[in-house]
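Write out structure tokens for GH92 family glycosyl hydrolase.
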Amino acid sequence: MNFTPKITNRFTYIILLLFPWPVFAQDLVKYVQPMAGTAIATTASALKHGQTADTRFANTIPAVTSPFGMTQWTPETESGETKCIPPYYYKDSIFNGLRGSHWLSGSCTQDYGSFTIMPITGKLKTTNYSAAFKHADEQSSPHVYSVNLKQYQLKAAVTATERCAMMQFTLEQADSLYLLIKANSDYHEGFVKVDKQTGEISGYNPAHRIYQGWGKSAGFSGFFVIRFERSLGKTGTFSGDRIFTADSIKNDAGTGIYAGFKLNKGEKLIIRIGTSFTSLDGARKNLQAEMPGFDFDRAVENSKLKWEKALGQISISTSSERDKRIFYTSFYHAMQQPRLFNDVDGRYPRFSGNYQIEKLSGGNYYDDFSMWDIYRAQLPLFEILNPPLINNLAKSLILKGKQGGWMPIFPCWNSYTSEMIGDHTASVVSSAYLKGITDFDAEDAYQILRRNAFDVPANRADYVEGKGRRALDSYLKYQYIPVEDSVLDAFHKMEQVSRTIEYAYDDYALAQFAKALKKSADYAALSKRAKYYTHVFDPSTGFVRGKHADGSWVSPFNPDKKETYITEGTARQYTFYVPQDVPGLAKLMGGTNKLEQSLDSLFVKGEYWHGNEPGHQIPFMYNYTPSPWKTQAAVRKILAAEYSDGPGGLGGNDDAGQMSAWYMFAAMGFYPVNPVSGEYLLCSPLFDKIAITLQNGGKFEITCHKANPKSMYIHTVKLNGKTMPDNFIRYRDIMAGGRLEIFMQDKPDTN
């Protein structure tokens, strides 16, 4: 099926005026593989360290959307909104419809506020209507998805804007076409309604919290309105196999609306859909603003233009088409979340509210921050590519803190969750401010972050709700979290050593913010706490280790065994999570040579697990040893082993784009080991040339000079013609534009 419309010269002229960049010359969307990550990973580290088959899925979906859009549109092969089950698995062969989804890309969470539209032909049926399909029947890209449902002799396709979608259904024989429209409420709270006078179908699916407050109302719903290009035919409601003539239905299992049409062979039915988190009226306004007409081909082309512009911000030169596919697929995955949450008029649901609506004075409000993951590389990537976006994200986080009273730990579903460990909003907001992304109230931001770092909620109900750092009282009392504190009021319980060292990083991040705001007392206190990681480091073993309240170590001890005091990993893996003080960690180990030996041991034993984020900085840590060339070798091996072409192309949960952003940084030759510092550790780029177009119109170019095509070891680096003395580059150098030249050879440069 060819979705490229015939564009008149006049239309081309208008498009070029609106988008003055060579979109048609680039054609980068052809490299994006939305199916990547929808099949189970088979990499060596995924098989060894993945706890279950589910954790070896990247848990991405073939989303049709706009960058950071409100709603993703995906084929549905898995019904419901079950935790850790994405709407689509590549292994499936049964199609349930096209879903308007709010799945957290690459996660093990759950969908919310979603709804599904299933086309069928022939006689009306409201159960057992799913259709068999083969992947040869699908076409998938960021801007359009289509499937040929041979069982029903029809083709279904969908394209999207930031908040809306357009679907097209084409019959291959004259027949009756029915659309079955369901709000996917696992709590049986969905509502759908047909208005025959206006020809509109609308509905909502109330969102519910998970983790802290699991099952409680999230205080908002996923709303949708559907408009048709032709008058509605036969309509009604259904619940399971029961069919009714009523115009609405709610609060029952398997409920929905059906709408029937008579179409000739080759005839098309086009529908437009608006979505919102505030109201049905908000969905209508979004639809009118973003998708006022029914021209499907033009909608597809407009969506493609958006993706070409976004992907075109980084151009790469390489002879490997496979590497281009992996890179631009990673780029697409890195632009799924955080999610746009406000309507076109600025209205959005109040954070941790009860169906209260707020309105922005400017900018956009975002949610679904997979914060334990994305502060490492995904958000730092957009500090370079899109500082205004980062500013909106920081302002969104500050709004959440002000509206809820405490800065959320892992803000998803517009609610407190306290999911995972750490308090990494401190890293995100501090990093933005220190990089000059400052269009927000710094004092407000600091005070909210400070409250998390210094205070425990006086009201126990607030703490149970998910407000404040988990186990902060123990952390402050002992200067580490002893194993006697089981951290009961958390989804991730125990994990005391991992919490200790992640809080130490967050304290470092907040200390830098305090220093910038000239808060000297806080800076001193937080800088001291940034060293608390040393209190769970056992010098007799050379690893972090569980510790009792009396100061004794937990025994027995095996650094390669998963323990309750470590989060999703082992002591050996977590020992290297000291991004704020790698030289200090080296000193604890006995010097940089010992650090190198410890890193060697991790890789030799096969204990490096790329599918889990706490290890993502590890291969770059050789840059702090006498053998930085080992970073260059290790990163190249990981790029080759942990990322591949096709549906199984990711070695673990993508976690809202963190795995993908790691690939992008590593393939471009630099990585933010310490995201707050503004320093990026160098490795050898995978490509011959990289050009990053900055928001100010400047360019930062990386050129590789290789002794031969397989050269990967660095011997000289020049920035704007001057030899660099360090093995890192600074944020300010990148943002100033210019040229980084990396000279590479076949053998390690031991000097």
